[in-house]
């Protein structure tokens, strides 16, 4: 099933907002709800793991 939502986000430019929504869409298509929830929990509550993940991604 396909659902449509209207969302608001903060970004310095419309281009960055579009990039963020495209990336989020890819994550939603490729990961389960449980996996996305766990990822969000780590990003929100574990800065050490978030920093390690960013380094592993070359960010």
TrEMBL record:
This is Uncharacterized protein.
